[in-house]
Design goal:
The protein has one helix spanning about 35-50, and strands at about 1-5, 15-25, 30-35, 65-70, 70-75, 80. The protein has a domain at about 1-60. A hairpin with a 5-residue loop joins strand 5 (about 70-75) and strand 6 (about 80). Helix content is about 20%, strand content about 35%. The model has no long low-confidence stretch (mean pLDDT about 85). The strands form 2 sheets. It has a 3-stranded antiparallel beta sheet with strand order 1-2-3. By secondary structure, it is α+β, with helices and mostly antiparallel strands.
Length: about 80
Amino acid sequence: MPGRCWLWCRRENVSVLWIGPVRTPSVAGELYACGQCIAELVHLVREEQRRRSLPPERICEHRELERRAGGTFCAGCQRPIHL
């Protein structure tokens, strides 16, 4: 879906994915990001995971998707994926 990346690059009219809700004390919304920024976010999460010595299986990378009930879901963790 073309749109604005809400993370680091803030580019407009790029392909973005919904990565979750965002909430501040005064407003709530939906967070969208481009592939490059999502990759950077994944890298930061992995670094934090290694720093805390968490087992790697605790973080899902959504590598396999499946279609069901009119939506797209991760085959591993079953979370909905909004494309």
